[in-house]
């Protein structure tokens, strides 16, 4: 991934990931499980349904330590089956 995270952020720092995916009961749990693999901690995701209720937006603030750490989390979160976008 060719990003400029290392130029724009001072590591370590809080970084909020917004994950948008199909509205399933397990989406938030799957997101937290992936984050726990790469950045163990105590997380409280903020979950918002779309206007029609077909999708959820899950926002989680994570302490990241490097550009590679951010990119790894993006890739891993994108690999979840029900996830459509990671912002």
Descriptors:
87 residues; alpha+beta; four-stranded antiparallel sheet; 3 helices; 32% helix; globular
What's the short story on this structure?
The chain is of the alpha+beta class. The protein has three helices and four strands; from the N terminus they run H-E-H-E-E-H-E.
Architecture overview:
By secondary structure, this protein is of the alpha+beta class. Helix content is about 30%, strand content about 30%. It has three helices and four strands, in the order αβαββαβ. The longest helix is centred in the middle third of the chain and has 12 residues, at about 25-40. The two termini are about 15 Å apart.
What layout of secondary structure does this protein have?
Blueprint: H1 5-8, E1 13-22, H2 27-38, E2 46-49, E3 55-64, H3 67-78, E4 83-86
Antiparallel strand pairs: 1-3, 1-4, 2-3
Helix pairs in contact: 2-3
Largest sheet: 4 strands, antiparallel
The parts where pLDDT drops under 50 for at least 5 residues are none
The beta-strand count equals 4
Name the beta content range. 25-35%
Query: What is the number of helices?
Result: 3
Report the order of strands and helices: HEHEEHE
The overall average pLDDT, rounded, is 95
Query: In order across it, which strands form the biggest sheet?
Result: 2-3-1-4
Principal-axes shape call: globular
Radius of gyration: 13 Å
């Amino acid at each position: 991934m060719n990003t400029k995270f290392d130029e724009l952020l001072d590591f370590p720092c809080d970084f909020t990931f917004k994950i948008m995916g199909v509205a399933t009961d397990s989406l938030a749990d799957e997101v937290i499980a992936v984050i726990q693999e790469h950045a163990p901690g105590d997380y409280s995701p903020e979950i918002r349904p779309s206007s029609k209720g077909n999708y959820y937006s899950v926002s989680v603030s994570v302490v990241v330590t490097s550009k590679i750490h951010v990119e790894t989390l993006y890739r891993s979160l994108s690999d979840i089956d029900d996830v459509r976008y990671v912002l």
